[in-house]
Specification:
Radius of gyration: 44 Å
Number of strands: 44
Largest sheet: 11 strands, antiparallel
Number of domains: 5
Strand content: 35-45%
Distance between the termini: 117 Å
Structural class: mainly beta
Shape: elongated
């Protein structure tokens, strides 16, 4: 049953659970175990009399000495609700690895352990410790806080730094209304330079020597204005320093699920020595960092090393992209010109991807289609990419047949894709060779006298064709051959073993893509154009002994040049246009050079100089 104990106001007491022997116990809790000087753990005690009252004052007397109350576990906090202090800093106790002190989990609210930046500059996004200073990046401001020291200001406004027991001292803002917005991932540091983006101000910034400068203003202000505006709140601005090339790399990335009109990414680099933005890249990193003179990026959970010699140049994340350089030719800008040629000095392997003039502008008139005209040229292939060999040969039909296969007399291979023509028979337009084989048979039984049976030679073999092979004397010819049975009768005795090869010299069987009425002994002409990329497959060597032709850049020493062929559509009032005229008309032209897919793919290609020959008396 329950026990009632009268307790006077001046008595302090403690209730304790006991067992039946009046010994204190731990009722199932994880206190000090019994073998360590504590109390035994007992469960299931339900008796009402198993409670003791222990006085804290000796003998329970008024104002008698009390035992120590011990450590107070908490203090009263008048405001016990949570709060988000987005512009405040808090620090823990100390950590000393030499003495074993680790108080990093101690945040004593009884001490002044917080420091607040100006809330008007929004939340703190990034902290960077530099020597004895802490750089604080808020959305709209960048500041510096002193560490383990404070600034004392005189009445005249002068300041002096003094040591103190403050962990975070006075917060001093840098000049300029710049912040890091909500893109701390754009931060990168090298030496005394810190780089970051400020999407709110459409700027890429550099903090150096206590000053913030806008490096996006160096020829890229409009570009970054558009790029940073389109990424929205869900986009990323990934930044990192390329220690290999000494460049700050920044990648603006629009999420796929974004409502922005532009999807994708744009990765560019800034060079301190050039004082400008020097290159675009075709990769989209998730992180960028440098280590021991090497640049690394992270993509889809994998770490990739850049500038590796084990992969092709222009290959990022196993995807190869040609390198491109775009230039503008704008001599005598107030005169209309005709650009006749284009050339460059550098490595073999550059092609002209595009060349076009300035636009004439749109002519807005009621009920009239508005058209903006430009002059443009055809693609100009590289020195190797535009190289080709044109070959031609004649052969006589060895049979009369209408169809897509015929036996011909020929000692040379007919390249696949060769055009077929004839003055003696009617050949359909666009007829080409789809296959060609040299006629060879294999002996299925031992030859007897001048007769042998062959397999794999179900072709029409004219009499008089020379045969060769093991056991066949030179000059032996075909007397007759039955394509159905494979029985060959030779002009003299032969000794051909089972499985031996018999070759029919000077005869081939070709297949074409259209049915042709072939006639015995009619002459057929074959012509083919083979590009350099197909030399090995067509001729069996990369350096065939034929004259080379070119439809792209020609080379003299280390200078490559080509005529500009106009490929424009006719515009109103033009009499001569397109490939009927030479060159491009315009005040200026924009040319894009690209590496080809033929010349030393993945190798180094340099471009030193570009030029164009032009005239100004074009009638405009």
């Amino acid at each position: 049953m329950a026990a009632s104990v009268e307790v006077k106001y001046f008595n302090t007491f403690i209730l304790k659970k006991t067992n039946n022997d009046e010994e204190p116990i731990w009722n199932g809790s994880f206190g000090i175990p019994n073998d360590r000087g504590g109390y035994p753990v007992v469960t299931g005690i339900t008796g009402d009399n198993n409670w003791n009252i222990e006085e804290s004052r000796i003998r329970g007397g008024y104002n008698n000495t009390t035992v120590d109350f011990g450590v107070k576990a908490y203090i009263v906090d008048e405001n016990n609700s949570g709060a988000y202090r987005l512009s405040s800093l808090i620090y823990s106790g100390i950590f000393n690895s030499r003495t074993g002190i680790n108080q990093t989990n101690v945040f004593s609210v009884g001490e002044d352990i917080t420091k607040t930046a100006d809330p008007a500059n929004a939340s703190i996004q990034k902290l960077y410790a530099e020597d004895t200073n802490l750089i604080i990046f808020q959305e709209n401001k960048v500041s510096r806080a002193l560490i383990d020291k404070d600034a004392i200001y005189s009445a005249e406004g002068g300041g002096a730094v003094t040591s103190s027991n403050l962990v975070i001292g006075t917060i001093q803002p840098f000049g300029g209304e710049y912040g890091i917005s909500k893109n701390p991932e754009s931060f990168a540091v090298y030496g005394y330079n810190k780089y970051f983006s400020d999407k709110n101000n459409n700027a890429i910034l550099r903090l150096s020597g206590g000053n913030i400068s806008e490096i996006s203003a160096l020829g890229m202000r409009d570009y970054f204005r558009d790029e940073l505006d389109v990424i929205g709140n869900k986009g990323l601005v990934i930044g990192g320093y390329d220690i290999h090339n000494d460049q700050y790399v920044v990648s603006t990335q629009v999420p796929i699920d974004s409502s922005a009109t532009k999807k994708g990414f744009s990765t560019v680099s800034y060079d301190e020595q050039a004082q400008g933005w020097v290159s675009f890249f075709s990769y989209t990193p998730e992180q960028v960092f440098s280590l021991k003179n090497k640049l690394y990026t992270v993509k889809d959970g994998g770490v990739y090393q850049h500038y590796s010699t084990s992969v092709n140049r222009g290959s990022f994340y196993s995807v190869e992209t040609p390198s491109e350089v775009t230039v503008v030719f704008n001599p005598a800008p107030d005169n209309s010109k005709t650009f006749k040629t284009i050339g460059y000095e550098g490595s073999n392997g550059w092609m002209l991807k595009s060349l076009f003039s300035d636009s004439t502008g749109r002519d807005y008139q009621p009920n009239v289609i508005t058209v903006s005209n430009i002059d443009q040229s055809s693609i100009i292939r590289s020195y190797y990419g535009g190289e080709y060999i044109q070959t031609g040969s004649n052969a006589a039909c060895a049979q009369t047949v209408t169809g897509t296969s015929v036996t011909i007399y020929s000692n040379i291979d007919i390249p696949i894709g060769s055009s077929v023509d004839s003055a003696a028979i009617t050949v359909p337009a666009n007829t080409t060779v789809t296959n060609q084989v040299e006629v060879i048979g294999f002996a299925s039984i031992q030859s007897v006298g001048n007769t042998v049976t062959l397999t794999n030679a179900s072709y029409v073999i004219p009499a008089g064709v020379v045969i060769s092979g093991s056991g066949i004397e030179t000059g032996t010819t075909v007397v007759s051959y039955n394509a159905l049975t494979g029985v060959l009768v030779a002009s003299q005795d032969i000794q051909v073993n089972i499985g031996s090869t018999v070759t029919f010299e000077g005869i081939r069987v070709i297949s074409v893509n259209n049915a042709v009425p072939f006639v015995l002994n009619a002459t057929i002409s074959f012509s083919s154009v083979t590009s350099r990329a197909n030399y090995l497959s067509t001729f069996g060597t990369e350096y065939p002994p034929y004259d080379k032709q070119r439809i792209g850049f020609s080379r003299k020493e280390n200078y490559y040049v080509s005529n500009v062929v106009n490929n424009s559509v006719p515009r109103a009032g033009e009499i001569i246009f397109g490939d009927s005229m030479s060159g491009l008309k315009g005040y200026y032209t924009t040319a894009t050079f690209s590496t080809d897919d033929v010349t030393d793919v993945g190798g180094e290609k340099q471009l030193f100089l570009v030029s164009s020959d032009f005239v100004m008396d074009n009638g405009y």
